Amino acid sequence: MAAKNFSDLADDFKKLYETKEGYDAIIIAGKRPRMKEFKVHSLILRTRSSYFRSAFSKDWAERNDNGYLVFQKPNISSLVFGMILEYLYCGIVDFHGQKNNEIILELLIAADELGIQKLINSVQEFLSQNQLKFLQSNLIKIFELIVTYKVFDNLKKNFLETFVKNCKYFLRQDPIKILHFIIHHEEFNKYWKVVLEAICETLPYYLNQTTSVH
């Protein structure tokens, strides 16, 4: 039986990621003033991502005066791109270390763009396990992503059902904005009756809150 030393392999790739020894490419991620250069190994990125397999091909790649491959990703923040590189090199993604939930949402969109399926699966699983928390942090943001990006399709049903179960709570937060969004997106048609019933039940609460302000 062959011995498997995956921990040693992971440690070696982690050292390579940290030291940048022998790097042959530079990726510039994000926009000013948070733009950042990442020194990377094109072979590793090509092996781990279908997107970079094409990006570092002869048809796409450009070299600077020092001979390094240079690639720009202004649409992915430097923070998110750093997380992606850590995953590609080390197989690690720290969900719980992120205080800003929007970073996790951006990570899923970026992983989808870069064709990193296992990372997509991991982020989707984390979001599924913490859907109420994410809805509470930014309900409208989640709704916007659900109707815009296909990578959220697997999560759409569960997110919407969680919203419906907690509809009264959410309507008390920002009823006007929520109603405006729901009315203009057909994804919510099947839940409209439940939302209307919740509105009727929460309207007295909302009116009392408005009266108390005055």
Can you describe what's shown?
It contains 12 helices and 4 strands, in the order αββααββααααααααα. It starts with 5 loop residues before the first helix and ends with a helix. Helix content is 63%, strand content 8%. It has a 4-stranded mixed sheet with strand order 2-1-4-3. A hairpin with a 6-residue loop joins strand 1 (25-29) and strand 2. Helix 4 (78-90) packs across helix 5. By secondary structure, the protein is an alpha+beta fold. The mean pLDDT is 87. It folds into 2 domains: 1-129, Potassium Channel Kv1.1, Chain A; 131-214, no CATH class. Residues 23-97 form the BTB domain. This is BTB/POZ protein.
Strand content: 5-15%
CATH structural architecture of the largest domain: 2-Layer Sandwich
Number of helices: 12
The geometry reads as elongated
Low-confidence stretches: none
Q: Could you give the order of the helices and strands?
A: HEEHHEEHHHHHHHHH
The CATH homology group name of the largest domain: Potassium Channel Kv1.1, Chain A
Read across the widest sheet, the strand sequence of neighbours is 2-1-4-3
Question: Cα-atom Rg, whole angstroms?
Answer: 22 Å
Structural class: alpha+beta
Q: In CATH's first tier, which class of the largest domain applies? A: Alpha Beta
Helix content: 55-70%
Mean pLDDT: 87
Look up the CATH topology of the largest domain: Potassium Channel Kv1.1, Chain A
| Counted beta strands | 4
| Count of domains | 2
What about the largest sheet? 4 strands, mixed
Distance between the termini: 78 Å
